[in-house]
Write the structure tokens for this entry.
Amino acid sequence: MKLLITFFRVFMWLLAVLAGTFLLLAIAMLKPIDQRKIVEYQTVTSTLAKLDSLTIDQWSAGGVLEASWAVANIMPERAINMAGYGPRGPYNAVLDSLKARIVLFDNGGIKAVIICVDLLMFPRALKEKLEKRLPTLGFQPMQISFTATHTHHGFGNWESSPAGSFAFGTYEETLVDHMANRIIEATEAAAEKKAPITICFQKIDAGNMVANRLAPESGAEDPYLRIVHLKKNNGERGMLVSFAGHATNLDADVWEVSRDYPGVLVDLLEQEPHIDFAMFAAGMVGSHNIDSGLSKGHNRIITIGKHLAALILNDSTERTYNIPSKIGSADVDIALPASQLRLTGSIALRDWVFKAAFKPLEAHIRLLQIGDILFIGMPCDYSGELAANNHLDTYAARHNKKLFITSFNGNYVGYITEDAHYYTSDHDEVRVMNWVGPGMGAYFTTAVRKIIDSTE
């Protein structure tokens, strides 16, 4: 009997130690969601106050804007891990090779370049390498715009954080160097083919192809294909296209490399005799998916690409080309409150745990202004619902500007969606992929409006 009592006391003591340990770990690693309004954060109010006096660096020289473009194959030499839909192993087939597409501008006083990759996002490590190397070709970091097609069937192994290596495969610096080398080579090749250009901005309503997946019945949508047409004086033509539909049209259990519908779209455009180059960039894709009525698969990819290409090629709207000379740029630091990766409706990881897993969050909005067109690169899945509800296109038009907003600019900070969804939606992009907490939709959208205010 004494032995049983002794055993019971030891068992209860160990149980208390374990319970205490778990409690201490929970206190150390978890915290309640901070539900303050964004105006109560010093980081937010300070950032927005600084934006009131933001100055856009602008250069006009000679009255002539030259441009050119190039394409680089960035496929690795061997099969590596896939990126998208969480951890997956190496791809087992290649539907189509992934590319980097480059458009450069030069007005005789300053150069600028837009770089888009057929990947889930623009890798942070690749961005950092290019910002170190491209200045040798005359492109300063703030004159470099980064984006991605957001295909969920690209390759990974390009993110060095513990969480990134788990989700996308162990970081391989040689792979990042390989991509950087191909992009540098393509940029050098494009620079040899510069010619004076005229430029035209176009919007086409493709609303029947996109849906708001957070609020299918009541949520606003960004339904537009946005196209920037470039026409060289030697007759060559290029175009930049953005759209809000997610490139998620193959199932997660299909382990093959694919550019998804953006690949079909740009290929069809480039097959036209009067189009020499096309680039697709993911637009305001947060909360938006493709609404095709078809099951996921290759046929859906082809159908979407064909439909969007037909909308562009068959559009009969009269186009007015301008001869801009102005290039403007800014790299806007958006200071963030402590991270809040939510585990339940009211509990989140503490900031130090998030930083250990993901590295500290750094949000920068990069602006590239070409004439009256504002290329705004967001560090997130930015939601088209925010743009629609806040009438950003109309707001820019009052400043005589046209907006071309893209996502995934190399400083990824999660999903930025309409704040009303934060406590009501069960979607992963709100429950899991909002890494900073409530109020960020209003914060980032106010920042975009202030950036528009600062342009001439």
